[in-house]
Amino acid sequence: MRILSAPRSSAWGLAALLLLPAFALAAPPAKPNIVVILADDHGRADYSAYGTKDLRTPHIDRIFREGMTFDNFYANSCVCSPTRAALLTGRYPDRVGVPGVIRYLPDDSWGYLSPEAVMLPQVLKKADYHTALVGKWHLGLESPNTPNERGFDHFHGFLGDMMDDYWTHLRHGQNFMRRNSDVIEPEGHATDLFTDWACDYIAERAAGEQPFFLYLAYNAPHGPIQPPEAWLKKVTEREPQASPTRQKLVALIEHMDDGIGRVLATLARLNVADKTIVVYTSDNGGLLGEGANNGTWRSGKTHMYEGGLRVPAAVRWPLVITGGERTDRIALTMDLFATCCEAAGADLPKECDAKSFLPTLLGNGQDPSERDLYFCRREGGANYGGKTIEALIRGPWKLLQDSPFAPLELYNLQVDPQETTNLAQKEKGIFRDLSAALRRQIQLGGRTPWQKE
What we know:
By secondary structure, the protein is of the alpha/beta class. The protein folds into 2 domains: 30-362, Alkaline Phosphatase, subunit A (3-Layer(aba) Sandwich), CATH 3.40.720; 373-445, Arylsulfatase, C-terminal domain. 26% of the residues lie in helices and 18% in strands. The strands form 3 sheets. A 10-stranded mixed beta sheet has the order 8-7-4-3-9-1-10-11-2-12, sandwiched between helices. Helix 4 (190-206) runs parallel beside helix 6 and helix 5 (229-238) packs across helix 6 (244-269). The longest helix has 26 residues, at 244-269. It is globular, with a radius of gyration of 21 Å. Residues 1-26 have low confidence and may be disordered.
């Protein structure tokens, strides 16, 4: 087993990895299949391999156990659309026109995917990959911002932000379920449908020689929290002391985990598991009001504190990663873009904010990335007024504004990872420097329109 460990300070980009493996591949296997599984609002601690005792996620655990765990993995935003835009473009989300959640109501939509943005499926297709999205898109509801028009060869899923019901799949009475451009009316729980469609796609592509990229984007465990009755019954009987809210969320997560198990089993049954990279992560932290567990981190979804940004993340690659490995390296969702491209032998676009962590996966060692980490969210309503909230991390320091109507806050994450002591008044020099850096990031994002003309 290789252990990629670093001193505590390296989690903040201050030192290189100390312990290198005795054996490291000179180059990755050529053109592996790639499956990126993105959960929706999965809390940082809401899987049993983390050590959480009130839920059972054997299949998510398997990805962590057989792969490499990222102990410091951040979503690009504390809400859905911006992180998804970052994953698929390798850019900070406001630089591709998605600083906030895209919705079908124009008066409550806070992003528009830039026509100029280069998408991951477009880049991978140039490297001879077949590309598919199964599940939640959430980056546009009409032409030209639909999955097939933005590079996916195959789309089977849901265009919108959320479903009002996991069984009817409607959003405010509208049907956003599609197979490519065709409107469909499938029957069944959305999690089961997405699992079935992912397994069907893998079965179809495994029969050929062309490598494939599958982006499997579940809408679980996003609300409404609607697990199938059989799964809820199992959890309530096993965890009678848990609150009803927590029981329902655990059941929804365990149901999704079962679907992930079916996907892994399909890869194995069709003899493509050994040549397939499997990534598991979430688009943001869990929503505390729905019973999520974000571990020791402060707050959750919609907030710029660590609980809203830190997410579970692991990569399984059987021919490369021996299993049980961990890394302290900080990575962002958008870094998956660069990593997938490098693994596939695809050229990165000229404009790319992402940094590949492929050397870390290969066990070759990798210098920590000395870069500022920037996070943004634009939102409407009385609490936000169409304005933005932001955070910037530089080394151990984190500057954030969790409300557009509140002062900036400053924390030293190395000594205060729970963000309990605001040092904005005490560390004025650091506060000034990070404030200037944050303003520069905001200016860069301001170059890209986030509303359709």
